[in-house]
C-alpha cells in the first residue's frame, strides 16, 4: 500500500468516525432533552398532582423531589461586590476560561511568544481536519 493509499484510508476512517460522533451527539442531545422533560416537568408535576413527595418502586428505587435552582450573575462587578459585602466572598475566585486561554496562547505562539514552563503547560500539536467538500 503506497503512502497516498494509507493516508486515504486514514482520512476515510476519520470521516466515518466524525459522522458517528456527530450522530451520537445528536442522539445524546435528544436523550438529554427527554431526560430533562421527565425529571424537571413530568415527574414533578405528577408527584405534585398526587401530593407525593417520595415514592419507592420495587426493582427501581426511591423517586423523590428535591429543590434545585439555576443561578447566574448578571453584572459581574456589582454581583461580586454584593457577594463580598454579604459574606459570600469565599465564592469569588479568579478564573480564566480554558478555551479563551487556548485561543490567546495559540495566537501568541504564532507570534513567537514563549510561556514560562514553571507556570504553564503548553503543548502544541498538529490535528487533522476534514473540511466538507
Low-confidence parts: none
Main sheet makeup: 2 strands, antiparallel
Q: What integer value in Å does the Rg equal?
A: 25 Å
Strand order within the widest sheet? Answer: 1-2
Q: Structural class of the secondary structure composition?
A: mainly alpha
Overall number of strands: 2
Using the alpha-carbon principal axes, give the shape.
flat
Characterization of the model:
With 133 residues, this protein is mainly alpha-helical. The protein has a domain of 66 residues. The chain has 3 helices and 2 strands; from the N terminus they run αββαα. Strands 1-2 form a two-stranded antiparallel ribbon. A hairpin with a 3-residue loop joins strand 1 and strand 2. It is flat. It starts with a helix and ends in a 23-residue tail after the last helix. The model has no long low-confidence stretch (mean pLDDT 91).
Search tags:
about 130 residues; mainly alpha; two-stranded antiparallel sheet; 3 helices; about 5% strand; flat
List the helices and strands and how they pair.
Layout (H helix, E strand, L loop, with lengths): L2 H47 L4 E4 L3 E4 L11 H10 L12 H13 L23
Antiparallel strand pairs: 1-2
Précis, in short:
By secondary structure, this protein is mainly α.
Amino acid at each position: 500500500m503506497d503512502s497516498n493509499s494509507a493516508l486515504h484510508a486514514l482520512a476515510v476512517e476519520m470521516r466515518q468516525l466524525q459522522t458517528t460522533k456527530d450522530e451520537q451527539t445528536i442522539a445524546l442531545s435528544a436523550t438529554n432533552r427527554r431526560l430533562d422533560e421527565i425529571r424537571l416537568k413530568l415527574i414533578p408535576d405528577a408527584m405534585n398532582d398526587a401530593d407525593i413527595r417520595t415514592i419507592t418502586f420495587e426493582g427501581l428505587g426511591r423517586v423523590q423531589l428535591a429543590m434545585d435552582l439555576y443561578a447566574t450573575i448578571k453584572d459581574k462587578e456589582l454581583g461580586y461586590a454584593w457577594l463580598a459585602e454579604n459574606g459570600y466572598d469565599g465564592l469569588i475566585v479568579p478564573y480564566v476560561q480554558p478555551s479563551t486561554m487556548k485561543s490567546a496562547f495559540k495566537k501568541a505562539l504564532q507570534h513567537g511568544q514563549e510561556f514560562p514552563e514553571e507556570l504553564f503547560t503548553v503543548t502544541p500539536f498538529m490535528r487533522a481536519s476534514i473540511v466538507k467538500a
